[in-house]
Design brief:
By secondary structure, the chain is mainly alpha-helical. The chain has three domains: about 80 residues; about 35 residues, no CATH class; about 60 residues, no CATH class. The chain contains eight helices and four strands. The strands form two sheets. Strands 1-4 form a two-stranded antiparallel ribbon.
Length: about 200
């Protein structure tokens, strides 16, 4: 496995999304192909300085059908590779954390920023942005006060709806479902809208 894959910020989510047993009838060929493609493309990027997902998918499918089986898996390969290439090495061993953190907080004169600030800027670029009109329930006047942060809101298509009727309340809760899982997460997690103030 490529070393960069281990440091990819989405890798933990990748494992949950693609390797959870949500359907016992599925053999996992598409998920396995997705994992293989991410690993292969990260190695290709390191060795050749380019990636070619179409060629990679064709090569894999010539050896076994249905590798990278769905549009979501295909799209995810691009997202995971982009994440890994932009974020670079972010793992810090416990034994050197203090020294590395101090170095990351040191101002670089050539850029007037620190490595920590640069890393955060990269994180901001990798974070999904959702348009305000995708958050109609959250921006409704009856619901906006239910959100602690007015610029972190759930997109309508990812939010759970409360089912227990209560007088004077509606189905809104500031949370999102995570795809391919049976639990939901507070909106500080993925798929929450980060809106400009």
């Amino acid at each position: 496995m490529a070393a960069d894959l281990k440091t990819c910020a989405t890798f933990g989510f990748f494992r949950k999304l693609l390797f959870s047993e949500t359907d016992a009838t599925r053999a996992g060929i598409g998920r396995s192909g997705t994992y293989i493609a991410v690993d292969y493309l990260l190695q290709q990027a390191k060795a050749e300085g380019v990636i070619d997902l179409v060629q990679c998918a064709q090569l894999m499918r010539s050896n076994r059908v249905n590798m990278i089986q769905t549009w979501q898996q295909y799209s995810f390969v691009y997202d995971a590779v982009l994440d890994a290439l932009l974020s670079g090495e972010t793992t810090i061993p416990n034994s050197t954390f203090s020294e590395v953190y101090e170095e990351m907080c040191t101002l670089k004169p050539e850029t007037s920023s620190t490595l920590l600030e640069d890393q955060f800027d990269t994180l901001e670029k990798l974070s999904p942005m959702i348009e305000r009109d995708e958050c109609k329930a959250a921006t409704d006047s009856t619901n906006i006060q239910k959100s602690r942060f007015k610029n972190i809101l759930p997109a309508d298509r990812f939010r759970p709806k409360l089912l227990t009727p209560v007088d004077g309340c509606n189905d809104f809760i500031n949370a999102v479902f995570l795809p391919e899982t049976s639990f939901f997460s507070p909106t500080s997690d993925v798929k929450a809208a980060r809106l400009e103030s």
